[in-house]
Amino acid sequence: MMECSYQEPIGQTTEVAGRFAPSPTGQLHLGNLRTAVVAWCAARASGLEFLVRVEDLLRIPQSDAIESAQIADLAALGIISDRPVVRQSERSHLYEAALATLAERGRTYECYCTRREIAAEIAASVSAPHGRSLGRTSDHYPGTCARLSERKRRQHQREGRPAALRITGTTTEISGTDLVAGSYSATVDDFVVRRGDGIAAYNLAVVIDDAAQGVTQVVRGNDLLESTPRQMFLQSLLGLPTPAYAHVPLVVGSDGERLAKRHANTDGGVTLRELQSAGQHPGDVMAGLLMSTGWIGTPMSASGMIPGEIVEEIRATRNRVDLGALAEVLRDKCGEPAHNPTLNWRVTPHSPICRDTL
Ligand SMILES: [Zn+2]
To answer: How far is the CA of 176 from the centre of ligand 1 (A)?
Structure first.
């Protein structure tokens, strides 16, 4: 049952939605756009609202301009939020309310460690004879500050060390099934829920936002798969529902590396603007992105096609359109790299998640 303190008024809208949540740190490239297209199609095909959320916990001076450009690029492809776009930078009150709840339940503690100290502690615990007695994997936070003496805590405070907030993790496994990547399980370490500079950590913010916005379907890049057990753990602690997750393969450049802006030098345009400068119509880009998902098996003239027609095209090709059917096709596409010579991309082959990497 959802807890009311994190629920924001959503008026007459339905409480079920899919979403795309870009960070305004750089222009969207084809990999980001492909994930947006998949998320949008999945929401539309499932009869859900589609939301765009700006994940700007960490803002840079150009964030406003980048955000505008990202939303304009999405709109050029026909991808428009059904509700006003929300920004994480304006929602710290929701995150603080959740942090207060976790603190009341005795689930958080202050951590004064620097990255270097954590790395040294992990190195020492791995070489110690009983270093793995907690059953945690090697990159997990070793729990140093969970055992901090009051004297040591006061010393850190006198030194002016910033305190992050960590959550007490699990020793039992969290298990889930991803619609694309399949089943996984992992223990969750004492991860950070509020950074030393006072900003909510991504894992906390995303969980609160998804619940507050009634998001029931999360389609995102599979680089975020490994943080999903942490988010599921927070949902269970806060009594929030767990959405259906579908982590889609990332687009890579011709060198096999995850697509980035630098690929414009070797692979041609990687952003919508670059492709438009090279004479491509946004509708052609949308068609190329859809074909790369395998949902549309034959070339089509998508220029000028409106979003509803695209979903109808998928429906006509595949007889049924829902998230399960789309995930089936995406899973098939995971088996081998797909290369689109027009747009010069490939989709990474999926490798099953390994709990040791969590
Ligand atoms: Zn610490």
So the answer is: 29
